[in-house]
Automatic annotation (TrEMBL):
The protein's assembly and partners: Forms oligomers.
Highest taxon of source: Bacteria
Species assigned in the record: Methyloversatilis universalis (strain ATCC BAA-1314 / DSM 25237 / JCM 13912 / CCUG 52030 / FAM5)
GO biological process: negative regulation of DNA-templated transcription initiation
Domain SpoVT-AbrB: residue ranges: 1-42, 71-114
Designated name of the protein: Transcriptional regulator MraZ
The keyword DNA-binding is assigned to this record: yes
Location of the protein in the cell: Cytoplasm, Nucleoid
UniProt-recorded Gene Ontology molecular function terms: DNA-binding transcription factor activity; transcription cis-regulatory region binding
Gene Ontology cellular component annotations, sorted alphabetically: cytoplasm; nucleoid
Family the UniProt entry places it in: Belongs to the MraZ family.
First-listed, main subcellular location of the protein, grouped into a coarse class: cytoplasm
Annotated keywords: Cytoplasm, DNA-binding, Repeat, Transcription, Transcription regulation
Length: 141
């Protein structure tokens, strides 16, 4: 992250984001671990699914509120940079080193130290308990 709180989106995911949504993205944070980064069409589809959840159910309402209350529209600029607003940056504890992690229809932005600690913990869990065949199915690693 630079001094103006921008990150440069790497070329390959940037091209996909530009093709998919012309750089229009939505960032949000449900937890304090990381920022979620969605291409605008993916976020809009997610909102349509969230609208199906009942407002009168406390758990559903809490989930919807935590997901949407922190949402911020942003645009990737011509230089491939994305501004990280103060509220989301502080919520996720992002400082200088930021990791961009692909997660299917979205990306996650992690503080580099937190990501490395989580990755080490994941490695330890995977080494301690092998995945059952029902989980891995026909995956080849």
């Amino acid at each position: 992250m630079d001094d103006k709180h921008r990150i440069v989106i790497p070329a390959r995911p940037r091209k996909k984001l530009m093709d998919m949504c012309e750089g229009e993205v939505v960032m949000t944070a449900r937890t304090r671990e990381h920022i979620l980064l969605y291409p605008l069409p993916e976020f809009e589809a997610l909102l349509a699914r969230l609208d199906q959840l009942p407002d009168l159910d406390q758990a559903s309402n809490d989930f919807k509120l935590s997901f949407t209350a922190n949402a911020r529209d942003e645009t990737i600029d011509r230089a491939g940079r994305l501004l990280l607003g103060a509220d989301l940056r502080e919520r996720a504890g992002l400082t200088k080193g930021v990791m961009l992690v692909g997660r299917g229809n979205r990306f996650e932005l992690w503080d580099e130290a937190r990501w490395n600690a989580e990755a080490a913990a994941r490695d330890a869990r995977e080494g301690a308990v092998p995945l059952p065949s029902e989980v891995t199915g026909s995956f080849r690693f």
